Amino acid sequence: MDDQKEYKEFTEEIFKLTNIPLHLYRENQVRRRVTLWMSFVGLKSFKEYLNYLKSSPKALEEFKKKFTINVSEFFRNPELFDELKKYIPELAKKTDILRVYSAGCSVGAEAYTVAIILNEYFKGTKYHIWGLDIDEEALEKAKLGIYTKDFFKSARTDLIEKYFNKMSQDKYQIKDEIKTHTTFLKGDLILGEPPRLDFDIVLCRNVVIYFDEEAKDKVYANLSKCLKVGGILFVGATERVFDARRFSLEYVSSFIYRKV
């Protein structure tokens, strides 16, 4: 079997086993990472590695974690969140409750960051935040809301003290007054459906960098579909939606787009 065909069968089988659509990820990037992991266990072909993953639930679980884990922290790129704050008053005026979607929410730091911002700077604004991710373990951590100090590198000390309960020297848990404004759900950004279709703000930051162009288009089409007209899409600092009009979006700033 030639290498390309073997790789294709590998991605198809992995999708059946894990629901992770590797065939929509950048091939060179996937190949490089998988080949490295194969070498760690002394295997030389995708077929051998697939059989190894099928025979070891523990190895398959570790594989899933490697492909779904995201770097996450509170107030990542705080200056970008400061920019986002400028658009919230106008959005809040137009709705009974501000609905926010954290797409690819990982362990929940982004969703809780937005909740803290709304609670701290927009008192009286009703809001709810939905977080979606494919990784069940990450979602359980998000629901629990317990974080170590390394999650707070970009967060102000006064906000940590105000919105978290200190559990130990290195562990903090988000307070219930914030947690009650969040819902975390399992879902696939590329192949699945969004939790609802009337969001005022959608955040999808540092997620699509792993996807090929076809997958990116599907993600942005889905995100646009679930935004209200006039709603805001907030992407990562180094990300850009090319030809945004295709998705009924208009460029507002280097990381903010508006649904039109």
TrEMBL record:
Keywords: Methyltransferase, S-adenosyl-L-methionine, Transferase
Organism: Thermodesulfobium narugense DSM 14796
Transferase listed as a keyword: yes
Catalytic activities: L-glutamyl-[protein] + S-adenosyl-L-methionine = [protein]-L-glutamate 5-O-methyl ester + S-adenosyl-L-homocysteine
Organismal lineage: Bacteria, Pseudomonadati, Thermodesulfobiota, Thermodesulfobiia, Thermodesulfobiales
Location of the CheR-type methyltransferase domain: 1-260
Superkingdom classification of source: Bacteria
Matching CDD domains: AdoMet_MTases
Full protein name: protein-glutamate O-methyltransferase
GO biological process: methylation
Pfam families: CheR, CheR_N
UniProt GO MF annotations: protein-glutamate O-methyltransferase activity
InterPro entries given in the database record: Bact_Chemotaxis_MeTrfase (IPR050903), CheR_C (IPR022642), CheR_MeTrfase (IPR000780), CheR_N (IPR022641), CheR_N_sf (IPR036804), SAM-dependent_MTases_sf (IPR029063)
Gene3D superfamilies: Chemotaxis receptor methyltransferase CheR, N-terminal domain (1.10.155.10), Vaccinia Virus protein VP39 (3.40.50.150)
Tagged with keyword Secreted: no
EC identifiers of the protein: 2.1.1.80
